[in-house]
Design a protein that fits this description.
alpha/beta, 3 helices, 3 strands
């Protein structure tokens, strides 16, 4: 059931590292919490491994939004992986803004 009142249920692809986002999702599952079926989680060894190709491919495959889950800057298990991930998200954002595809809904809050 949609929370938007118009029947629209966005498809979300979430990328996250094994030390942060995945651990949170795994803990939630252990506690019996569920996340919506329209959220697809992609586990990465580090948020720094997020690639512009992965982000754009998610949109090409029908995602309405992409979410990147990382630790706060300066608190990365791999030292600077979250900073690399942030830079890659920003690069993807700039690329999509300049391309023919719409860049609606882009935010970066790593």
């Amino acid at each position: 059931m949609s929370n938007y009142g118009n029947g629209f249920e966005p498809e979300i692809t979430a990328f996250g590292c094994v030390y942060c986002g995945y651990m949170a999702a795994d803990t939630a599952g252990t506690l019996g919490w569920e996340y919506p079926a329209n959220v697809k989680y992609v586990k990465l060894p580090c948020t720094g491994k997020v690639d512009i190709r992965y982000i754009l491919a998610a949109f090409e495959q029908g995602a309405d939004g992409v979410y990147v889950v990382a630790r706060s800057l300066g608190n990365c298990h791999h030292v600077k992986g979250n900073a690399r991930g942030r830079a890659r998200v920003e690069r993807a954002k700039r690329f999509s803004t300049k391309s023919a595809s719409a860049a609606n809904g882009w935010t970066c809050s790593l």
